[in-house]
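Fig. S4 source data, part A: sequence.
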Amino acid sequence: MMNNRFRKEIMKNASESKLSKDKLQKRLKEEGILKMKNCRPANAERPTTARISSVQFHPGAQVVMVSGIDNAISLFQVDGKTNPKIQSIYLEKFPIFKACFSANGEELLATSIRSKVLYVYDMLAGKLTPVHQVRGLKEKIVKRFEVSPDGSFLLISGIAGFSHLLSMKTKELIGSMKINGRISASTFSSDSKRIYTSSGNGEVYVWDVNSRKCINRFFDEGSLYGLSIATSKNGQYVACGLSIHPPTCPSSERFVEHLFMPDTMFSMYDPKRLPEEDRLYIGLV
């Protein structure tokens, strides 16, 4: 069942703020059962022979990308029936840790689990280019990265708390930022003007992209181990995914998602967080 009930603590988006009270209540009324249909696997024509590492839809075409630690990236035309394979790109001795489209979908980027090489595949020209070394970047392994929504920047998460901001166009280093401890997750704001970095101990850092200066930092109360972080497209919320058990806990884990109001993140050490009942809990045993 869908539980899409309106809460006063949640801000309305731009379109909802213009609706009358009656229309808003009608829009937020529970609709009953959400029906879904199980379709043919997207990668049925070319299943990976090892663990899948990344799956992503193309931002402008009906295409899905699937990569795995079997050194291959495959593209499929998604129709829900046959999902024909468009092509596969094989990277020799390069078990893929992450693959991702650029914001405009013209490039495909890939990193490995034990390499500092960044592969860039030109979707229009069909050309594969390895970036062996970024000047000024001293990381021995490049694994985790994020692409800014406006397509201008590439953020690489390094070791010892360093984040490196690169130009998406030239793949050159612009500057670096550092947090205390280990980086667990990073993301850009929807307007690409800020970066949110979560540390392993649950502390969140907010950075200004232009100056690369930290404009605020705060602890996500109750977090023992930060796992992920994401921003909403309308810029109204920041979600922090975390574990409330230490990472060494062998028997079970419980994952929680906290929602914050970004406007309170830039001036408050204890920013506004949505109340307990608005958290998402996921238990694994």
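Fig. S4 source data, part B ends here. The CA atoms of residues 59 and 103 lie 7 Å apart.
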